[in-house]
Amino acid sequence: MWHNRWTEKPSYEEALALTGLMKTLAAFNPRVAGTPPLGLDLPSSDIDILCHARDAAALAAALWTVGADWEGFTLYQWRRAPRPIIARFRAHGWAFEVFGSPEPVEMQAGWRHFMVEARLLSLGGPALRAAVMAARLGGMKTEPAFAQVLKLRGDPYAALLLLAAAPDDRLSALVAAAGFIPASRGLLAGGR
Predict the structure, then answer these.
(1) pTM of the model as a whole
(2) How confident is the model at residue 79, as a pLDDT?
(3) Which Pfam families match (predicted)?
């Protein structure tokens, strides 16, 4: 089933399946993050895969084996700690980025951003999603779009990381303070 609201490329799930990446990277606890699973993707969005790579050389070898022939394949490692491995390439109509760090995926900033964004969207419902998407369509990256819509102050990346550990009632209050009816109260508020 080939569908994407922007182009005639496959969905991100189909592209992932066609690459076989999740199976190839299984030993590295791969998790898909970023805008496609959130439903906030634009035509330029990529598919982000976060991995727990205790052995950077093993991840690099796995990526070379599966992806060396993909369009634009690049693989590099940061010089500073935690020295993650990053691979970028295009396959099946999508740009991909694989990020492998010695930190468990659950501790990585990218995963924590993704999880709090998913929670906020769940709590804020369609109106919050539409507002964040409007900011994205206006040229903003995902974290700054959330920060603007929710009226967060300071660095948007740091602000979202601070919210990652917040309980749902605090996130619901934040969503409500920004003018969005939290989804859990949407039926009650909308019916009166």
Answers:
(1) 0.88
(2) 79
(3) DUF4269
Question: pLDDT for 56-73, tens place per residue?
Answer: 999 999 999 988 899 999
**pLDDT score recorded for residue 5:** 53
Cα–Cα distance measured from residue 131 to residue 120, given in angstroms and rounded to the nearest whole number: 12
Domains of the chain plus CATH, in order, are 12-104 (3.30.460.10), 110-180 (no CATH)
Q: Indicate the pairing of strand 85-91 with strand 31-33.
A: unpaired
Tokens, residue 49: 């895969």
C-alpha span between 25 and 55 (Å, rounded): 13
Rounded CA separation 75/35 (Å): 22
Q: In what order do the strands lie in the sheet with 31-33?
A: 31-33, 46-52, 94-101, 85-91, 71-77
